[in-house]
C-alpha cells in the first residue's frame, strides 16, 4: 500500500492507483524552499499566509538573489496565483527595503510593469 493511494473512479467506486515517484530534483527543491513563518499574514491581502511569494519572479532573477529575504513575502495561495496570472499589487505594500531591492535588481521600468501606483 506504500506506493499506492485510494481514489474514486468514474462510477464513484474506490480503486487503488499507483503514486508517481518523486524525483530527486523535486525533493531537493522542497527541502530548500523558503518556509512560511507560523501565524504569518499575507503581505498583499492580510489573510493567513500559506506560502512564500517571490516579489521578483524566480524566472526573472537568476543567481543567489532569487531566494533573498528581500525578494520573499508571505502570501496566501489566492494572491500568489493572482500574481502568477498578471495581477499588479500596489507598490506601497512593499517595505522600503523590498522596494530598494526591486529597484536595485530590475529598475523602475520593471516595477511599473509588475506593480500598480509606482511613483515616477
Explain this structure to me?
The chain has four helices and four strands; from the N terminus they run ββαββααα. The strands form two sheets. The chain has a two-stranded antiparallel sheet with strand order 1-2. The chain has a two-stranded antiparallel ribbon with strand order 3-4. Helices cover 28% and strands 15% of the residues. The termini are far apart. The protein has a domain at 33-114. The chain is elongated.
Question: What does the secondary structure layout of this molecule look like, with pairings?
Answer:
Elements: E1 4-8, E2 14-18, H1 24-32, E3 51-54, E4 72-75, H2 77-84, H3 96-105, H4 108-114
Antiparallel strand pairs: 1-2, 3-4
Could you write a compact summary of the structure shown?
The chain has helices at residues 24-32, 77-84, 96-105, 108-114; strands at 4-8, 14-18, 51-54, 72-75.
